[in-house]
Amino acid sequence: MHSVVARSGHGSVRGPLLAPGVVVIALSLLLGLQPILTDLYLPALPLLARELAAPMAATQLTMSALILAFGLSQLVWGPLADRYGRRPVLLASLTLLCLASLGAAAAGSVGWLIVWRAAQGAAMAAAVVCARAMVRDLYAPQEGARVMALGMSGLGLIAIAAPIAGGALAIGAGWRAPLYTVAAIVAVIGLFVWRRLPETLAPRNVQGLRPSELGRSTWQIVRHPGFRAWTLLIACTYGGLFTLLAASSFVYIEVLGLTPQTYGLALGSGSVAYLVGTVVCRRWLQHRSGAEVVQRGACFTLAGALGMAACAVWPTEAGVAWVLGAQWLYAFGHGFHQPCGQTGVTGPFPRMAGLAAAIAGCGLALTAFAVGLWLGQAMDGSLRPMASGVALWGVLTSLVAWTLVRRHGARFGAHATGEVLP
Questions:
Q1: Which residues, in sequence order, are CB contacts of 380 under 8 Å at separation 6+?
Q2: pTM of the prediction?
Q3: Which residues pair with residue 7 across a beta bridge?
Q4: Contact (Cβ atoms closer than 8 angstroms) between residue 58 and residue 99
Q5: 190-206 tens-digit pLDDT
Q6: What is 19-196+213-413's CATH number, 1.20.1250.20, 3.40.50.150, 1.20.120.290, 3.60.21.10?
């Protein structure tokens, strides 16, 4: 296999010959599995709840189980990807994800649906971990943040299309149709990885699975203040986003009176705001550090949080336009936090990028799982639970950006040679 030296500030990162366009497409598809498995499915939630006679808590568990499995399994996939490489782990996990999606589509009860959704989450985790680690394999952190922002712009396009397509599929063919569609999409992504994506990891960590080495590496990662700052940032911002994702179908359809198709458009419009945020983020990263960019983005996050707080205080007065406006502001800010945060957590650890991405991703997913459990109990047929949840996470995200990331997050921009700062 041919190889190339990718530019990286003060040093270089050795990796396989891989055109930038292929990197961006791979990131968009692999990271885009998250909205494909969630946003495409969300418009069908009220339909499957009625058809399977599932209570609200069980219906929410079909989302929470996916997220919990997604988070915990990253702790397995990350070390495997560092030991055996990104490509074999990706191919194996995408095969499992396709099979799990077919199982979910054929589920005859909400219990089996929960099991298959958990299997989907466990398989999806490897794709996301490997995508994040690939960026660190090929680029220094500051350049990697710009590449990640471009890949997340592609994710934004997928997130725009997914709920719109999901709404049309659910109305036209029932709640199982989006899940069969997921299986087909995963098969196409697997074909792309097999045909176009070479191995990016060199050298592999041959000792990475030894318990003593794994424990030492984990401790080195979690004690790093920059890692903790960025991990907390992406966990908080995703906590608010997941609150929107998990609750919005019931709020928009059953509280605000939208049809599933119109709801898909409403959710997709938030993805447009996120996409625009990633574009602006990428431009600002040309002249500012990731820490500076997320501090600016936090202004929009806080504005969206305050808009949602107003909806929570006056739920009966809040209309679709007001909720949408707050959602757009929050999603726009999210477009800054995710590209910088995902790169920030792996920046100091070029030789342990898979493990670092896995630990951070696990924290993010456990946050979302807790949100799902809370929503299963808190949803009361009004706007208030969703609005108050987004408001809380928006305030927390802004505080983390203006304190911990401001103090420790800038360190990742200095790592171009593979050194780990204390």
A1: none
A2: 0.75
A3: 12
A4: no
A5: 999 998 888 887 777 66
A6: 1.20.1250.20
